[in-house]
Design brief:
Shape: elongated
Radius of gyration: 20 Å
Low-confidence stretches: none
Order of helices and strands: HHHHHHHHEE
Helix content: 55-70%
Length: 203
């Protein structure tokens, strides 16, 4: 505890909660303040609403941590914003995700993924992976929203397609709900083929 008043702490943290506990505190305080502004009728009703808000906040933090920890979990949750077909579980996809995680961790410096067409390679490597890298809390050369990413394809149309899909995923309500406070796409460099965020990361 910082020693400052709860109101001061709320005003500081509500701008940009940095931890899971900060997010829970801000959610509870916001509901508490809202109830007093609306002249709450009973303490029991207020307590019930705060508990509900806390449950929602805890569920969101669990989902956020799960997706940041596992690229495969992130891909499963993000899939509906990437591809209209339903996600189909499979060990090749899981293995691909684990190898990409090892790249971010610095355990693999050169990675070649060779699987048959239509197995989800582009959707995972070129669409989900860049968006996932930018969700990471730890800022390293390969992790965090400041990482620049370069993607190429034998056809410009495919490179453009995957770039647009990544941007749509980042701008999706789901992604913004979980990581919207970490970075924002900047308006002066936000095109189909190239976009940047306010932490100097780009794709």
């Amino acid at each position: 505890w910082s020693g400052s008043s709860l109101q001061d702490l709320y005003e500081t943290l509500s701008q940009r909660p940095t931890t899971a506990m900060a997010s829970l505190f801000v959610a509870a305080m916001r509901e508490w303040k809202r109830s007093f502004e609306g002249q709450a009728r009973s303490f029991a009703g207020l307590q019930m609403r705060i508990e509900k808000v806390m449950d929602v906040s805890i569920a969101r933090e669990i989902e956020r941590v799960e997706c940041e920890t596992s690229l495969y979990a992130f891909v499963q949750k993000a899939w509906k914003y990437v591809d209209p077909s339903p996600f189909v579980h499979g060990w090749p996809l899981e293995a691909m995700c684990e190898h990409l995680e090892a790249v971010v961790d610095g355990d693999i410096r050169k990675l070649l993924i060779n699987i048959p067409p239509r197995c989800g390679k582009s959707s995972i490597v070129s669409v989900c992976f860049p968006a996932w890298v930018w969700t990471q809390r730890e800022n390293t050369a390969t992790s965090g929203p400041q990482v620049p990413l370069l993607h190429a394809s034998y056809a410009m149309s495919l490179a453009m397609r995957d770039s647009v899909k990544t941007r749509r995923l980042i701008e999706s309500p789901w992604y913004q709900r979980l990581w919207g406070e970490r970075f924002h796409l900047v308006g002066d460099q936000n095109t189909k083929g190239r976009f940047q965020n306010d932490k100097r990361g780009e794709r």
